[in-house]
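User: Okay, second chain of the day. Same drill as before: sequence in, structure tokens out.
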Amino acid sequence: MEERKFTEQELVRREKAKELESLGIDPFGHRFDVTTNSKEIKEKYAQYSKEELHEMDLEEVTIAGRIMTRRRKGKVGFMHIQDKYGQIQIYVRQDVVGEEEYALFKKADIGDIVGIKGTVFRTDMGELSIRAEHYIHLVKALKPLPEKFHGLTDTEERYRRRYVDLIMNEDARRVAFARPKIIRSIQHYLDNLGYVEVETPVLGTILGGAAARPFITHHNTLDIDMYLRIATELPLKRLLVGGMDAVYEIGRLFRNEGMDRKHNPEFTTIEVYKAYSDLEGMMDLTEGIVSNACMEVNGTYEVEFKGHKISLAPKYKRISMTDAIKNATGIDFASDMTFEEAKKLAQEHEIVVEEHFSYGHIVNAFFEKYVEETIVEPTFIYGHPIEISPLAKKDPKDPRFTQRFELFILGSEYANAFTELNDPIDQYERFENQLKERELGNEEANEMDLDFVEALEYGMPPAGGMGMGIDRLVMLLTGSESIREVILFPTMKLK
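Assistant: Same drill. Structure tokens below.
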């Protein structure tokens, strides 16, 4: 293994760690029981003046954090320590903490983690601070932090070294703490409606539930290839057959596809299924999930994203895919148009018609080219072609299309939902058509899942189902324009 090389500053810090050891102090610390944090202190004492705090009989507080600034003059010093909520100033005097503890303070570096016991006060400048009565070394930082005003300026390095980014970047911390709040808001919303959260397998032997290329792995004991799941849909619908009539799962999916500002190979979704519901029911549920999360996390229905101010308050616009295309291009794909006529229109509009394309694929291609990126306000696009919706119920008025919708906001898809297909005969035929597409080169087509067909043969209730990308929702609600900002450890190229 190649020998590690250290900078002069890193070598100095390692020597300081040895000095601590020689004093009988563990450079990397022990348990330290804190009683408060920077947020609690500021909320509890913000209203009081310097004089009022001085007159109060305040209890000792115990706090811990990382040193972010430090200045010293003689036997007096100031520093700011940072915990998960932010920073607070610490005032250290030698005649209060004693010579030994003050000597530790003098030798401390930016980045070290310390414990402080003391009382709250305001400085002459009016800053709420803690007057240290005890200074306790906890952890020696062997590497220096980046320069405080710029942090990690290389975006790639920010994602690779998220631990440093979280220390230096307040916005990164804001997003990191907002994400679990958003997920909890969804769980609470659904739990209160009587849905049950479940877990389904991550590894499977059959590809299905979405149109995507999978990651393939191998199980040695069984000597079989297995897929990392691309969707949770089919196992969740099996639960509807079994009588669990309102279920959801929040979990990781894996798709072996491209990476950009909106895509990561490993990502988080929620899928929801409700017996005796339908497309309209899923629209109402999706509105509720999104608007409730926005209100709980941000305290408002208004969000600013990509230079736009939009409202996520219900009710969202609803329009069919064919009407949206007609509004944008004047072409009516809901008419009695033949495949050849559609193909000719595609060629005229410079849309490539691939070998496996049929009528519905052309319709979808027109939508993607002329409509998708023009949508700003939350909009439900419904009535997708049957060819791209193998698990959705047919539109009884026009079997070329399905009872399916996608939620679009600011040109991006946020949710996908169906009136679920529960006809086992139709489902079997759809799977057969997917196999034909695979033979023609569509690597994203589903495989035949005969067990799922047989499950439907026992009878699945009429149902609605919806899937939503958690990462994209977090992006929207936190104003983050890259998915890698909202995933703590995004997939990265090897150096």
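Residues 282 and 464 are 6 Å apart (CA to CA).

User: Thanks, on to the next one.
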